[in-house]
Amino acid sequence: MDPIGIVRLGDENFEFPIMEGTEAERAIDLRTLRSKTGYIAFDEGYGNTGSCESGITFINGEKGILRHRGYPIEQLAEQSSFLETAYLIIYGELPSEVALKAFERNILSNATLDGKMYPIFEGFHQDSHPMAMLSSIINSLCTYHSEYATNNRKVDLEHFDAASSILMSKARTIAAMIYRKKMGLPMMDSDPSKSYSEDFLSMLLSKPEVPYVDTCGASKALDLFFLLHADHEQNCSTSTVRMVASSGTNLFSSISAGISALWGPSHGGANMAVIEMLEAIHATGDDGTGFIEAAKSGQAKLMGFGHRVYKNYDPRAKILGKSAVSVLEKIGINDPLLDIARRLERAALEDDYFVQRKLYPNVDFYSGIILKAIGIPVEFFTVMFALGRIPGWMANWKEIAENPKSRIHRPRQIYTGHNERNFVKIDKRS
Ligand code: ACO
């Protein structure tokens, strides 16, 4: 007999099945709660709610474990590349050499944008935020590739391979174009003989007559950054992608919604906020002690610290902390922000406030230092996060689209407004 959980409401007992995942994560299956009892489950912020079954990524926040399709993030970071990990996340298995080559070729050869897209970039204000532009222009891909964005699940799934290559590749060109337009730089062609990250850096950072040349391993560091951001279970942006996809919406629009969700400072926007925080601390000459005290008293937030799921070190932060040191060394930069970050980390990890609340550095704490060293402008940090996260969003879209039993996501609420009232005409209102 399947295990059963018993919920007592008033003097009645109700039975619900217990679900168990591959890693012994358990849940009470409450899908029949309302029909059996008339109650709903209230869980604002979804801290206790499993919104789906998923075979993509596993996190054990207590132990600081992150695995994609069963492979530990440490092994992928050490031995894989961003595109190979993207393939793994999207298709579920590590690719053969032939499959990886084909996957890379499809992505690298799809960088050129439809000529009709260029005027779009002119239409934005010069000072528009790059994340606003990225999410809008990604959504516009539906109009240039409408055959892959039909909102007919069967058709969209048949074209998934083509649509996902277009999205992975063109998101990179779009990001580079946004930057170049802002800087008044001319468009730079893609070179499919380069790696994904090197080609991106070249499209982004080349100056007229001075092509970008990576002499100190910047593209490798960026590739690792992308890989470490490739997926992260049911976070705010991925849940958003799944929410939008659940209504049958196509891949491009679902991911455009994910980009908007990522933008906020409590999520992907934190990587910008960390650098702004470190720069502000540097400018005041504070050794970090003052800021820690401000964070404890609620006057400030230690950006890049804390996580809804990790109550231990975020394993990606450990890898990025080491990568930051090696990138700065290779580029030959002595960035005082790295010293401030390390001092803050040490101070926080020894402080009761942070220890009791299990607040540790998250992925955003060191990533900005790496991006800054590579030459990426701070305003573009969250765009970098988005480029890295696209494989995870696409894998989650595919999982929903391929599930014949998936239903539209439609939570309920506890209404706290007025009871029924009688409408009063405007001239009779006091
Ligand atoms: N600095 C200071 N105190 C903090 C921090 C922080 N960074 N994070 C959490 N706390 C405190 C809260 O004030 C709260 O204290 P209390 O119990 O006295 O009220 C306690 O720790 C629990 O925090 P919650 O806000 O309930 O945690 P939640 O899971 O809702 O939020 C979040 C997680 C949003 C990541 C939060 O830790 C935060 O804002 N961190 C800074 C922003 C950041 O780095 N975001 C990136 C997250 S990773 C990602 O999305 C890629």
Topology readout:
Blueprint: E1 4-9, E2 12-20, E3 26-28, H1 33-37, E4 57-60, E5 65-68, E6 71-72, H2 73-79, H3 82-91, H4 97-108, H5 118-123, H6 130-144, H7 153-158, H8 160-183, H9 196-205, H10 218-228, H11 236-245, H12 251-263, H13 270-284, H14 289-296, H15 315-331, H16 336-349, H17 352-356, H18 364-374, H19 381-402
Antiparallel strand pairs: 1-2, 2-3, 4-5, 5-6
Helix pairs in contact: 3-10, 3-19, 4-8, 6-8, 6-12, 8-9, 8-19, 9-10, 10-15, 10-18, 10-19, 11-12, 11-19, 12-19, 13-16, 13-18, 15-18
Acetyl coenzyme *A is lined by residues 235, 266-268, 270, 295, 301-308, 357, 359, 362-364.
Descriptive tags:
single chain; 430 residues; mainly alpha; Citrate Synthase, domain 1; Cytochrome p450-Terp, domain 2; 3-stranded antiparallel sheet; 19 helices; 6 strands; 51% helix; 7% strand; binds acetyl coenzyme *A
Architecture overview:
This protein has 430 residues and is mainly alpha-helical. It contains 19 helices and 6 strands. Among the domains are: 90-219 and 236-263 and 383-402, Citrate Synthase, domain 1; 270-374, Cytochrome p450-Terp, domain 2, CATH 1.10.230.10. Strands 1-2-3 form a 3-stranded antiparallel beta sheet. It has a 3-stranded antiparallel beta sheet with strand order 4-5-6. The termini are far apart. The model has no long low-confidence stretch (mean pLDDT 95). The chain binds acetyl coenzyme *A (ACO). The site of acetyl coenzyme *A has 19 residues, from loops.
